[in-house]
Amino acid sequence: MSSMPLIPKQAAIAVADMVDNCAKVKPGMNVLIIAANDGLHGGVNIVDQETVTWLHAAVVQRGADATVIWCDIPARPAIIWGQGADPSKAWRVPPVVANAMRAADVVISNAVDLTYEEELREIPDILEERKIKYARNMATTASLLSSNWGLTPYELVSEIRIQANALAKPGARWVMTHPNGSHVEGIVVKPEDMDDYAHYRDIGVYCPFPEGVWSSIRARDAEGVGIINEIGVIWARHIGVPCPFKQPVRVYIERGYIKKFEGGEEAETLTRFYKFISEYLGEATYEVRGFHGGVHPSAILEPHQCPNAPYRHFIEHHHWSSFHFHMGNSRRAKDFPYLMHISAELRGGDLKIGDHYVYKNSRITTADHPKVKAIAEKYKNRPGLEPERWLQTPR
Ligand SMILES: [Fe+2]
User: Fold this and answer.
1) What CATH code is carried by the domain that includes residue 104?
2) Whether residue 50 sits in one domain with residue 139
3) Distance (Å) from CA 339 to ligand 1 centroid
4) Is residue 227 domain-resident?
5) Are 251 and 331 contained in the same domain?
6) Cα of 66 from ligand 1 centre, angstroms
């Protein structure tokens, strides 16, 4: 007889928050929980059995039907371009997984390779056919669930996100600056399917746990220079650059398009990668298609909580001091199988949209919104707007 590991109180709170407030599981729903086997054994889809077991238990306790799939993801090169590579022919979602997704009311995914907006276009295509809700659990291990990152109230971070999106008024000028000399600015473009960004996530099928970023804002006519030390880890792996870089990269942008990368080895790799991909996507490869950033107060973890360094960087991408712009646009190329999601990361600078700062003094300004503060009052015994009070290792 196997024994079920005892769940720490912190993890139980996080699991309930995930299932009730992010996935919004209700009695009678068919809930599909997915994890990838490689993630148990050092692969990129980091996960543990406790997390999947606890999610399953929480789902059935709510009167829903749960199906758990432990799947294999096709083995493939991490780098998708270069000699002999054909990025127009990507790997496919395993058909059993794809069909299980189609039959679910809600999917809870614990697999990085099956993300909604960074890997395969096939995933959103499957989900959007029937508007199937896709809850992406990023706190995929017992220690991540038990961390301050997992334990910060979902509702609190959601409100920080909603208020940040509300500041992105179509037509306004956005300006990113950083003490390292970065200055990038452009114009906010209206979303494709709504008049503004105020409740943008509410219409979509995708929601991550913990809350991560405010929804991406479309942009045009970007100008300036971004000096970056890293790009998002998923595409760093697909391009083949370290995260962080060994040497900063200067990204020169004119009239909405990247003109040049300058720096060391990484700038050279990026230059060759973008040229290669432009054979498939044309000038959209170089488009600065948008920007946004992190909303989470406690998205910085210690190595003992998450031994995998790239995954810690991935988590920090969601911290409320972190923002980025997107380098490249594959959205219009419907037959291109990858979702090009290359985030040029800046931490600790300022972002202003119109007359309002969104980031100032290494912090998102909407954390001070009265609605956010009112929600924080409800959760006094959980990490929230004063993350430093909850650190076990003061920084
Ligand atoms: Fe992004």
Assistant:
1) 3.40.50
2) yes
3) 11
4) yes
5) yes
6) 31
- Please give the pLDDT value at position 201: 64
394 domain-assigned: no
pLDDT at 321: 98
Same domain for 105 and 24: yes
Q: Please tell me the distance from the alpha carbon of residue 278 to that of residue 285, in angstroms, as a whole number.
A: 5
Among 121, 146, 171, the domain boundary falls at 146
CA dihedral 288, 294, 299, 300 (to 10 degrees): 50
* Structural domains counted in the chain: 2
For residue 395, report the distance from its CA to the centre of ligand 1, in Å: 27
Q: How far is the CA of 4 from the centre of ligand 1 (A)?
A: 37
For residue 24, give both structure tokens.
């919004």
pLDDT for 381: 96
Domain that holds residue 310: 153-384
How far, in Å, from the CA of 218 to the mean position of ligand 1? 11
At which of 85, 119, 146 does a domain end?
146
User: What totals of helices (H) and strands (E) does the chain contain, helices first?
Assistant: 11, 16
Distance 223 CA to ligand 1 centre (A): 18
CA of 290 to the centre of ligand 1 (A): 8
Ligand 1 centre to CA of 205 (Å) is 17
Predicted local confidence at residue 394, as pLDDT: 85
CA of 384 to the centre of ligand 1 (A): 23
Please tell me the distance between residue 28's alpha carbon and the centre of ligand 1 in angstroms: 34
User: Which residues are registered as beta bridge partners of 108?
Assistant: 33, 135
User: Which of 228, 209, 391, 188 lies closest to 296 in space, CA to CA?
Assistant: 209
From ligand 1's centre to the CA of 117, what distance in Å?
Answer: 9
Residue 202 confidence (pLDDT):
64
pLDDT mean values, one per 10 residues, the chain (395 residues): 80 98 97 98 96 98 98 96 94 97 98 95 93 96 98 97 95 97 97 81 82 94 98 97 97 98 98 97 97 97 96 97 97 93 96 98 96 97 96 86
- Measure 8 CA to ligand 1 centroid, in angstroms: 32
Q: d(Cα 102, Cα 138) in Å, to the nearest integer? A: 22
